[in-house]
Amino acid sequence: MSRAKGTIAEEKACEFLREHDFDIIDRNVYSRYGEIDIIALKEDVLHFVEVKSATAYDSAVQNITPVKLQRFLLTVASYLKKHKLDMAYCVDGVIVTPDTVTHIENITL
Asked: 10 Å Cβ neighbour count for 29?
């Protein structure tokens, strides 16, 4: 996916999260392990969000591979340590297709 398409998908994901009472805290956070697309807060829980987009839901979900998820979790741990945060958090996915935006909470379960 091109960076431009990724940016559009992230904008749609942010818009969706805001509509569902999330506050966007940060975006495109990098560590040596990878990137967190969106960090959002809702009801005192931090949500670390991986955004995936494709023409079909299934192909977007399949792009969240075990290796990518492991790198994402290392980036989350790095962020929490760097910012000295000790609070509830979860790792979510937002799947963006041409017709829908779907929020999947706790993708590590």
From this structure: 19
